[in-house]
Write a structure and sequence with these properties.
Oligomer: single chain
Number of helices: 13
Mean pLDDT: 92
Shape: elongated
Largest sheet: none
Helix content: 55-70%
């Protein structure tokens, strides 16, 4: 339970990491006040479940985000993708990590990124041109997309993207008229 305490010192955090207890590590990975050194130790842990939990932590530093992005599993691609999906959903991922996730070959990773309401404008614009319709549909449903992205999606070749966009809470009156 100590690992959940947001006020534990950096030294105690590092001691807890050395315990090599999965429950303790999971609790640390969820702790929003862990030090960067503790984050790095957890990111290098062999257990993918710990990395998946850490990827959801909104306070992980960019270095840890990049380490997690690079995670591969020799046994199952599922775990590596789960880490990337959690990163893509993390509202505090950095611009650099967003640009890396944009290049990911897994559609589900890009789809999770498209649904993140805090992605930057460049990421939004790139996703609006994604080759996969599911990614563009998810982006059309994102309430935070900018007007320029909404306009690109309005001209999308897929009717389903446009249908979703028509229900967007912030489309301009001018665009609403174009739907008629």
């Amino acid at each position: 339970y100590l690992a959940k305490n947001t006020n534990i010192s950096k030294e105690i955090q590092l001691q807890l990491v050395k315990e090599d207890d999965e429950i303790i590590m999971e609790n640390l990975a969820e702790n929003k006040n862990i030090s960067e050194r503790t984050q790095l130790e957890l990111a290098r842990n062999k257990e993918f479940q710990i990395k998946e939990i850490l990827a959801k932590n909104p306070n992980i530093c960019q270095e840890v985000q990049l380490i997690l992005f690079e995670c591969k599993s020799g046994f199952s691609r599922f775990y590596g993708n789960g880490i990337k999906q959690n990163l893509a959903e993390n509202i505090y991922i950095t611009n650099l990590v967003q640009s890396e996730l944009l290049k990911d070959e897994e559609i589900l990773v890009r789809k999770y990124l498209a649904g993140n309401i805090y992605i930057n404008e460049i990421t939004q614009l790139e996703l609006s041109q994604d080759h996969d319709v599911e990614v563009r549909k998810k982006l059309a449903n994102n309430p935070s997309i900018i007007e320029e992205v909404r306009l690109k999606l309005f001209h999308d070749q897929d009717d389903n993207v446009r249908k979703i966009l028509a229900q967007h809470p912030y489309i301009s009156e001018e665009m609403q008229l174009k739907f008629i």
